[in-house]
Amino acid sequence: MDLLPTGVTPITAVPTRIRNRPDPGLLVWTAEGRLTRYEIDRLADFVTEQRNPGNEKRIVRLIAEIPLPNLPEEIVFVDTPGLGSLASHGATETLAYLPQCDLGVILVDASSSVQPEDIATLDALRAASVPAIGVISKADLVCTRDLKRLVKYTQDCVLEQLRMEINVAPLSSRSEMAHLLDGWIGNQIGPRVANARRLAQESSQRKAKALAEGVLQALKSPNECRWRLRCKMRPRGIEEGGNSVTRSGQSNRGHERRVLPSYNSNSRSSGTGISNSNR
C-alpha cells in the first residue's frame, strides 16, 4: 500500500507522523484544539498541497497509524516537506521541526542522485545537532554492482560538500528485497532504540536517587536548624549538669565545658511519600 503521496510537484503540506499500531487510523489536530480520528485513506486530504494548499485547513499535528510488524512502537517516522520545495511555508515547517528529531533520514531516489535539497537538509540537521543517515530508495531499479557504486557516490557527495560522513543503506519496497529493510532496522534503528531505552532507564534512576537524597536532606535540615536556633537563644550563662557555662566557655568550676544538644525521645520524623511519573 502506498501510504504517503508522491509526485513531481510540491506534495507535502504538513509534517506527517507514522507509527506502528495494529489498527490503521488517522489522528488529526487542528489549530482550534480539536482532535478527530479518520480512516487512513483520508491522509491525502490533509497532508498534500493539492487538497490542503498552504495548510488552509490549519492542521497542527497529524499521526498516521498502520501495522508495521518490524518496527518498534517507540519509533515514529516523520515525513516533512522538502527544504527545496516551492511551497515555502512547508520548508519553514520542516526547519521548525528538525530540532525535535532524534535522527534524520535523507531519502535519495536510486534513479536520481543527491540533490541540493538533500544537502540543505543534511546541513540543517547538523546545525540542529541531529545525527543523520542516508537511504537510497527503489534499490530494485539498480543492479547489485551499480547499487554499491551509488552508495559510495552518495557518501562521497556528502563528504565533499559538507565535510560530513554518513552511513548510506539501499532499501526497496519489493518483497524479494525485504532483507534490506530488515537489515537496516536491525543495524541502524534497533541499536538506537535499545540505547534510548537504556539512557531513559539510567536517567530515571538518577532522578529517583537525586529525589531520595533531597528528601533525606530535607528531613535532616529541620533538626539541625532547631539546634542552631536553640544555641543562639540560650543566655550567657547556661546551666548544664549543675555548672554555669559562660560565653567564653569557662564554667564556675574554672574549667571548660561543652554545651550538648538535648535529646527528646518522644520526637518522631514524619513519613514521606515519593512518586515518580513518566511524561
Q: Could you walk me through the main structural features you see in this protein, from its secondary elements to its overall organization?
A:
With 279 residues, this protein is α/β, with parallel strands linked by helices. It has 2 domains: 1-79, no CATH class; 101-230, Rossmann fold, CATH 3.40.50. It is built from 5 helices and 10 strands, in the order E-E-E-H-E-E-H-E-H-E-H-E-H-E-E. It has helices at 43-47, 88-97, 116-127, 144-162, 178-233, and strands at 16-20, 25-30, 35-38, 59-66, 76-79, 104-109, 132-137, 168-170, 238-240, 243-245. The strands form 3 sheets. A 5-stranded mixed beta sheet has the order 3-2-4-1-5. A 3-stranded parallel beta sheet has the order 6-7-8, sandwiched between helices. Strand 9 (238-240) and strand 10 (243-245) form a beta hairpin. The two termini are 34 Å apart. Residues 237-279 have low confidence and may be disordered.
Write a concise keyword list for the protein shown above.
279 residues, globular, Rossmann fold, single chain, five-stranded mixed β-sheet, 5 helices, alpha/beta, three-stranded parallel β-sheet
